Automatic annotation (TrEMBL):
Alphabetical list of SUPFAM superfamilies matching this protein: Nicotinic receptor ligand binding domain-like (SSF63712)
Keywords assigned by UniProt, alphabetized: Signal
Protein name: Neurotransmitter-gated ion-channel ligand-binding domain-containing protein
Organism the protein comes from: Batillaria attramentaria
Signal peptide: 1-24
Amino acid sequence: MPRTGSARLLCVLIVFGVATPTRCDSSDTGYEYQTSEAEVVRALSIPSTPIKGRPLNTVEVKLGFNLIGVTELNADRGYMETTGWLTMNWNDSRLIFSPVYQEISDVRVHPSDIWTPDITLYNAVSTGVKVLNENDKAVVSGDGSVFLVQQLTIRSQCDVKGHLSAGDAVSCTL
């Protein structure tokens, strides 16, 4: 089989329990190895918190929420339902990898395959937060930084006094 630029292969070399992306040429072994980027990160991931060497055993998470809209305001039950984009950035030194090919600077993996922050809204009602797209991917860069964006529906407490009329102003806090 002639070798082309698109026929590059990626293998995972596991040494002492640490996975390292390495070059692998199918002509050397007679086999074609196909390892997806997600499998590389899955091999690197550990389900525990990435706190090694951090002060006070903490992980710094940068968090943002971009409101798309209010989908429901229920005065009788005292809650507001909103939809928006939750963005999170953090660093996990266990996910550092050295790109073998210049084209691989980051990989995309399902959030369940790596450690993710447990973010809770302090005034969420019992049904809390619902992820709208279960296929969202986290982007893991070679330096171990992780970026995750998820579209969420959040149901939070909202104490609305009295009866609402069209055009009434209401203030609710997330």
